[in-house]
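To assess whether ligand presence alters the predicted conformation, the chain was also submitted together with fe (ii) ion. Input:
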Amino acid sequence: MTAIIWDQRLETGWAELDEQHRTLIDTFNRLCALAGRAEPNPDELEGCLGFLLEFTLVHLELEQELMARHGYPFEAEHRRLHSVLVLDLERIVDAFRRGARDLDPVTLEYLDDWLQNHIRKEDFRLADFLRSAQPQTRGQQ
Ligand SMILES: [Fe+2]
Ligand SMILES: [Fe+2]
C-alpha cells in the first residue's frame, strides 16, 4: 500500500476541514508504513489505529456540527456514510484488541479508498455549501 500524497484534489478550501483531513491522511500513511515493515509491531499498529479512530470521531463530529448549524441539505446521507466508516474502524480496532497481529492490504485499501473518495466527493460538496452559506467568512468555521 502506498502513501496518500496530499494535493489540491484533496483540498476542500475550508481550512478547518483541510487541517483535520491532513492529520487523517498523515495517520493513514503512518499506518501503511507500520504495516509495510518486514515484521510489523502489533502494539504500534494498534496504537496508530486507536488514534485514527479517535481523531476520526473528532473530525466527523466537527463536520456534523457544521452540517447541523448551517442546515446542510445532504446531512442525513453524509452522516450515514460517516456511521459506516466508524463501525468499520471500530471493528478493525477491536480485532487488534482481541489479538490480531497484522493489517491486511484489503483493509488498508478500504481505508485509502474511503478517505480519498469521501473527501473528494462528500466533503467537497459540504465545503462548497458552507462557502455559499457564509461567503463572508470563508474558511473560518
Ligand atoms: Fe472529512
Ligand atoms: Fe465527511
